[in-house]
From TrEMBL:
The keyword Amino-acid biosynthesis applies. Keywords: Amino-acid biosynthesis, NAD, Oxidoreductase, Serine biosynthesis. It comes from Plesiocystis pacifica SIR-1. Pathway: Amino-acid biosynthesis; L-serine biosynthesis; L-serine from 3-phospho-D-glycerate: step 1/3. Belongs to the D-isomer specific 2-hydroxyacid dehydrogenase family. Pfam families: 2-Hacid_dh, 2-Hacid_dh_C. This is D-3-phosphoglycerate dehydrogenase. It catalyses: (2R)-3-phosphoglycerate + NAD(+) = 3-phosphooxypyruvate + NADH + H(+); (R)-2-hydroxyglutarate + NAD(+) = 2-oxoglutarate + NADH + H(+).
Length: 399
């Protein structure tokens, strides 16, 4: 079931691949639980439609939710994990589109293109007022976050001759170097030393109001904030005050309280300020991005439907508590794995992760790698070794 707008060719392709596709482009988050309960899809694809705990609880048979985009803050990941439902996204596939809009907002702010155009449409030639842009060349751009989108912005800003610095808690000098970008020592240092700040971090509890009044106060007089990440990362009220005071200007694609549908009334005061240029969350909305997102969503559906493997999962405990891994080499015969698991059960050892590979050749041997929650005892290792079809057992422990 696709509970949002999706590329028509993507829908066709899913049908060609033999999937029964139910397209519900105008379904609201409120209607989702009932529709999921009635239609019982195995896979749900969403864009902006919120998937709440109520939806997950109503969706019997649902195994996978695909976010046809990057941010997953509209999906209740805890509820999904509690019910054993995979959630995957399409990372990086709309990054170029967002980077292009970011550059558009930067240029629009510098040359005041929207106002100049509005005046021109109204029959006013005002070269005097609009011929005052400072130019982007040589200006300092500060990127908050350095993921897929920020890197695409960096490439484009460097081509404009800007000096680019970035702050992310995980950014190393080596990685920044590869992109000709400098690392800022802290968010505060970046904000205090940039002519343009562009925000590219996900929304989470820890990034809520990452840019609030104290951070905005650090930005130099006349600086510009571009925000295409997610409503809530910037404190819109504090931003309103800073812009209304004439200290900074802003280019925005996302807002704290924005409609999730395609068309709605939107009366946020912030959008009326002269120092703000805004777009209605269209960062990802190019044909190219829609095609790339649809292709990635189809890849995920195919992998899951054919092999049960979900690429790009965002709710798996990848670095789970398992420190101990058993590597059991065994004859590739029916029942051997069941016997190994039986031994683990007898010793009350919980499996965290498991996979089995088969060696090439006629006399089949295989190897099972089993990550377990607690340290296996010597008795357990002996029990497994005692099995006639077990060729060897090793215990690996992460340091
Ligand atoms: N306007 C639009 O239409 C779109 C908006 N987005 C938003 O942009 C966000 C970023 O997208 P990507 O670059 O693709 O994600 P990404 O996951 O590739 O990069 C996120 C970056 O943020 C950094 N980060 C996390 N917490 C941070 C913090 N407290 N301070 C500084 N850096 C921090 C991470 O280290 C990483 O470098 C998405 O989560 C989504 O909310 C994404 C696509 C379209
Ligand atoms: O699908 C959209 O238009 C929103 C894209 C977005 O915000 C994201 O990918 O995180």
């Amino acid at each position: 079931m696709i509970a949002d707008k999706f590329h028509p060719r993507g829908i066709e392709r899913l049908s060609e691949l033999g999937h029964e596709v139910l397209s519900e482009p105008s379904l609201s988050a409120g209607d989702l639980p009932e529709t999921l309960a009635a239609k019982r899809p195995e896979i749900l694809i969403v864009r902006s439609t919120k998937v709440t705990a109520t939806s997950f609880e109503a969706a019997e048979g649902l195994a996978l939710v695909i976010r046809a985009g990057a941010g997953v803050n509209t999906i209740d990941l805890e509820a999904a994990s509690r019910l054993g439902i995979f959630v995957a996204n399409c990372p990086g596939k709309n990054a170029i589109a967002v980077a292009e809009l970011t550059m558009g907002l930067m240029l629009a702010l510098d040359r005041r293109i929207p106002d100049a155009n509005a005046d021109l449409r109204a029959g006013v030639w005002n070269k005097k007022k609009y011929g005052t842009g400072r130019g982007l060349y040589g200006r300092r751009l500060g990127l908050v976050g350095f993921g897929s989108i920020a890197r695409e912005v960096a490439t484009r800003a460097l081509a404009f001759g800007m000096q680019v610095r970035a702050y992310s808690p995980t950014l190393t000098a080596e990685r920044a170097d590869a992109y000709d970008v400098e690392v800022a020592p802290s968010l505060d240092a970046l904000l205090g030393d940039s002519d343009v700040v562009s925000v590219h971090v996900p929304y989470r509890e820890s990034t809520r109001h990452l840019i609030g009044a104290p951070q905005l106060a650090l930005m130099p007089e006349g600086a510009v904030l571009v925000h295409t990440a997610r409503g809530g990362v910037v404190d819109d009220r504090a931003l309103s005050e800073a812009v209304a005071a004439g200290r900074i200007r802003a280019g925005l694609d996302v807002y704290e309280d924005e409609p999730s549908g395609g068309k709605a009334e939107f009366n946020l005061e912030l959008r009326k300020l002269e120092g703000v240029y805004g777009t209605p969350h269209i960062g990802a909305s190019t044909q190219q991005a829609a095609e790339a997102i649809a292709a990635e969503a189809i890849r995920i559906v195919t992998s899951f439907a054919d092999r049960g493997v979900v690429p790009n999962t965002v709710n798996l405990d990848d670095h789970g508590p398992a420190r101990h891994t058993l590597v059991v080499r065994h004859h590739d015969r029916v029942g051997v794995l069941a016997s190994i698991l039986d031994a683990l059960r007898k010793h009350q050892l919980n499996v965290q992760d498991m996979h089995n590979v088969v060696f090439k050749g006629a006399e089949g041997a295989a190897s099972a790698t089993i990550a377990v929650e607690n340290e296996p005892s010597a008795d357990l290792l002996d029990d497994i070794r005692a099995h006639a079809d077990v060729l060897g057992v090793d215990l690996r422990t992460a340091r």
